[in-house]
Amino acid sequence: MTTRTASEPTNQPRMTVFGHDIEAGYHVAVFVPETVAVEHSLATGAACLTGCVLRLEESGVWNR
Question: How do residues 8-21 score in pLDDT, each as one tens digit?
Answer without folding.
Answer: 445 444 444 455 54
